Amino acid sequence: MDKDYDVDLAVIGSGGAAMSAAIAARQAGASVVLIERATLGGTCVNIGCVPSKTLLAAAGARHSAATNPFAGVPTSAGGVDLAALIAQKDELVADMRQAKYADVAAAYGFEVRPGHARFLDRDTMAVNGEPLRARAYLLATGAEPARPDLPGLGAVDCLTSTTAMEQTELPESLVVIGGGFVGMEQAQLFAHLGARVTIVGRLAPHAEPELTEILRRVFADDGITVFEEHATEVRSDSGGVLVTTASGHEVRGQRLLVATGRRARTEALNLDAGDVKTDGRGFVAVDEHQRTSNPRVFAAGDVSGAPQYVYVAAAGGRVAALNALAGSPAEGQASIDYTGLPAVIFTRPQLASAGLTETEAIERGHVCECRVLGFDDVPRALVNRDTRGALKVVADAETGRVLGVHALGEGAGEIMLAATYAIKASMTVDEVADTWAPYLTMAESLRIAAGLFRNQMPTSCCA
What we know:
The protein is α/β, with parallel strands linked by helices. It has 13 helices and 22 strands. Strand 10, helix 7 and strand 11 form a beta-alpha-beta unit. Helix 1 packs parallel to helix 8 and helix 3 packs across helix 6. The longest helix has 27 residues.
């Protein structure tokens, strides 16, 4: 480390991007300090992926018992002790925070310093008022739920995805504004625990239309009412809230959950003093190497406007650390390859994707050919007695190369690893169709769907 600096890399935040950057920097022999103003671990482990998925698993277990398709094995689902479930969730979160963050920091030998960080000038930050000079800085402060400009919202006690997972009493009814991944997951979570749920917003707005149509039927079967239009007003109602939609529908619920997107968490950083620019959405603007408008400052993860997945944050953190420590851009620059990027929405059944949608492929100049396989043609789904879902393959019509894979179904997320490999390796649909797939797995659906490009006749069990 240069004697003019206190540390080689100062990382603001302690989530996925921050931890990945710190690990990469330590492996390169650099000194690192993480500065965290709140709870160690950032969004994913504390208020995002981990708590939501364990609660969804619990709700799914109850729903499975209540909707068991096997007549010879009767099950039942009683009431819910939400306080006990939340306590169990909190215990898991605490254990993972210790094992995956605090213990990892100790193992790699970097400091996690509690405090508020803000720029004093282009070259210096202050932590709790004390100057800190680093060779490079990484902003990894994440994002937080955005509050829409909706008349009446300020006068209503509404939930966010964070506060919803802190409730210890199950509401009788819940209105969810927003039909994206957070809105859908939270809606099903509370519906499967026994609440009456209504969604106001377009359902799965970025999913393939063939899959969204099936998902609409799933939500209807779950008793979730969906108004696919904008909310225009919110106001208090006797015993709860009333949401008015664009067409004039009035939706009542005991509680309101707002899930309309997230915004960058930058307000305390004093970015202007650091000469760090933001984009039109308020996220920190970065180039393909994670460098901001200040060449000594990098940003990664949700704060940079990247796709909001923890694995993308981790990849960005590692790239940022490598480039920050490289010295000058002339020494070589790492970047993220987004080819085949997978995504999973943990509804039940799951909605998952890898690579391009049909629309995206056409916009990029491909002549597309697509096939859709209903899960009533997948042996694993048949024996599970759950054929809700389908898998869609998007391919280049000229080369046969797989461009995207999209699925709705139980275990759809597990299929996406193979799909990502196929896309990254530039495999053709013929090559995927001729690749081994274990029988009676949901992953076999990828092979079957690929085979539809050369033969759309019915298939035998494994032929």
